[in-house]
């Protein structure tokens, strides 16, 4: 979803992204510039993580991507109803083990969540809303993507 940044600036509401953030289901499929996507994910990647391991990966899909329909099909019917209107679907993945020592990475979902929070607020600065989703079959999607050592969240 996109909103009118200039209007918000005029109303002086841009100062507090925390207050204007919410999770709309009414979404627009308006195209987003690649430079904006790059900026949002650069910020997501700059968030803190245990041992600075950055245990996240983001799969950014639009309707032209071969994986788009497969990803959509792992969602509950209700979630498919609103998610199919979004201009991007983002699959988030977290690493199971630390790269440097192979031990279980018990903080990886925590780290991923924090990164998504960064992403969400940076997107909002660009006038883009993100709605997160747990209502999909995480096991099925992880299997479908065939990603060893990673889990879709
Ligand atoms: C981990 C997580 C899972 C969520 N799963 C869903 C979901 O499956 N479907 C949905 O419509 N919203 C989902 N949401 C969005 C929440 O319902 C929403 O953030 C919450 O109601 C608070 O509303 P707000 O974000 O507008 O403040 C999820 C949010 C999070 C953080």
Structure description:
This protein has 153 residues and is α+β, with helices and mostly antiparallel strands. The protein has one domain: 3-Layer(aba) Sandwich (NADH Oxidase), CATH 3.40.109. The protein has helices at 5-10, 17-20, 34-44, 68-73, 77-83, 108-125, 138-145, and strands spanning 56-61, 89-95, 150-152. It has a three-stranded antiparallel β-sheet with strand order 1-2-3. Flavin mononucleotide (FMN) binds at residues 22-23, 79, 131-135. Flavin mononucleotide (FMN) binds next to loops.
Could you write a compact summary of the structure shown?
The protein is an alpha+beta fold and about 150 residues long. The protein has helices at about 5-10, 15-20, 35-45, 70-75, 75-85, 110-125, 140-145; strands spanning about 55-60, 90-95, 150. Flavin mononucleotide binds near residues 22, 23 and 135.
């Amino acid at each position: 979803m996109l909103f009118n940044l200039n209007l918000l600036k005029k109303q002086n509401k841009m100062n507090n992204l925390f207050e204007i953030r919410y999770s709309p289901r009414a979404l627009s499929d308006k195209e987003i510039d690649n430079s904006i996507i790059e900026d949002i994910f650069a910020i997501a990647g700059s968030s803190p993580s245990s041992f600075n391991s950055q245990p996240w990966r983001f799969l950014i899909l639009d309707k032209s991507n071969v994986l788009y329909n497969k990803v959509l099909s792992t969602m509950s019917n209700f979630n498919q109803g609103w998610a199919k209107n979004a201009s991007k679907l983002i699959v988030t993945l977290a690493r199971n083990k630390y790269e440097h020592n192979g031990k279980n990475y018990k903080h990886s979902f925590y780290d991923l969540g924090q990164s998504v929070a960064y992403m969400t607020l940076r997107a909002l600065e660009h006038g883009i809303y993100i709605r997160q989703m747990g209502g999909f079959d995480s096991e099925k999607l992880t299997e479908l993507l065939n990603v060893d050592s990673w889990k879709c969240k």
